[in-house]
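Appendix C reproduces, verbatim, an entry submitted by the partner laboratory led by Prof. M.T., so that reviewers can inspect both the input and the predicted structure.
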Amino acid sequence: MYSKDQASQIKQAFWTAYGQYMALQPSAEGLRINWINYKTGIKHLAFKMQVDKKSAWIGIEISNPDLTIQQLLFEQFEEYKKILSGTLGEEWIWELHSTDEYGKIVCKIYTVLPDISIFNKEDWPQLISFFKPRIIALDEFWSDARYGFELFK
């Protein structure tokens, strides 16, 4: 078991290593990008990557406090579902109005890598191999699809 401080340091070390690994990867438009804090340009719409002691997940999270707008954003993604799945090369889980780790209602489109731990450094290459192609695919999808979401800016 790790202290809160140790756990925080390990998580920070992983994300720093991942950020350095991804730093040379340009966006779909050939630009430098912060892959860890990906900016969609739409408030309350984020591409997120999370990992803890049991699993990792990557996905799209819609957290608009107005549940009607949240649902409209989710439905807009549903219009792009075939394109998204084609770009990702896999099917993801779609959840309308689920609850996040803070008890807030969100919509999520995501995939999970089970049985992996950020606290096991031997798992880090597998985590990077899980996150990298998916965040790049999300960026590729977003470089075209974002124009269909401009009304939500």
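Residues 4-152 form one domain. Additional entries are available on request from the coordinating office.
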